[in-house]
Specification:
Layout (H helix, E strand, L loop, with lengths): L1 H16 L7 H9 L10 H32 L4 H19 L8 H17 L5 H19 L2 H11 L6 H15 L1 H15 L5 H24 L1 H11 L3 H21 L1 H9 L1
Helix pairs in contact: 1-9, 1-10, 1-12, 3-8, 3-9, 3-10, 4-6, 4-9, 4-12, 5-6, 6-12, 9-10, 10-11
Amino acid sequence: MEVTLVSAFTAGLLSFLAPCVLPIVPGYLSYITGVNAQEEKAVISKTLIPVLFFVLGFSTVFISLGAGASFIGQFLTDNREIIAKIGGGVIVFFGLHFSNLLIRQDFLKIFSGLGLLGASLYAFGVLDTETFKALAGVWAVVTGLYLMNVHMLLYRQMRKQGGSKVGMFGSFLVGLTFGAGWSPCIGPVLGSILLIASQQDSVLEGIKLLTLYSVGLGIPFILAGLFWSAFMNFVRNFSRFFTAVEYAGGFLLIVMGILVASGQLSIISSTLE
C-alpha cells in the first residue's frame, strides 16, 4: 500500500505545480485573504487561517470522492481484473494528456509505431503473453479515447477555466468550489488516483489515498499562506519549469497506469508491506 500512498501524495504536489493551477493560485489566495498579490509583506494571521479553510474545503471534496470510489469498488470486485485493465489504460491516457503529448500532430503515428513495436517483441518472445495482453489493452484504450477526441474535450474545458475577504466559511466554500470545479486541469491526476482507489479492499483505503492526495496538494497552499511574499516570487520564477513538471507528472501517471493494467501494482505494494 505504501507505493500507492506515496504516489497519491506526489500526485497532489504535482497537481499544485501544474501550469493551469499554479498561475491562478495567487488570485485564489488574494480573493480569500483580501491580501493583494503584489504586497511584499502580509500578516500571517490574515493569510494562513483563510488558506487552511480553503484547503479543508477542497480536501472534503476529494476525500468524499475517495470514499465513494472505494464503496463502488466493493460492488465491482467480481470484475476487478477487467476494470483494472481498462482503468490502467485510462490512467495512461491521463498521463499523456498531462504531459501535453496528445496534442502533438504526430502523436497517433508515434503511438501506432509503439504498438507495432510491442507486437514484434511479443512475436520474438521478448514479452510474455500476459504482459503483451496488458500492454495491448492499454494501447487500445488510449487509441480509442484519442480517436474519439476526448483529449480535445479536456483541453477545451481546461482553457475555459481560466480582492475581498470572504471569511473562514467563505474560504471553505471557495475550497469546495475549487475541488469540484477545477477538474479539467487536475482531473487527469485526480481521476487516476480515484481509479486506483476503486481497486482497494475497503472504503478506508480509498479515503487514505485521497487524504494523501489532498495533503500533497494542500501543503503548498499552506506554505503560501505562511510565506506570502516568498511564494509570489516563486510563482514568478517557477514558470520556466512548467514543461518539466508536465513531463514528470505525465510519466508518473503512465507508469501507474501500466502497473494497474498489468496487475503489478498490488504485487509491488505487497512486497513492501
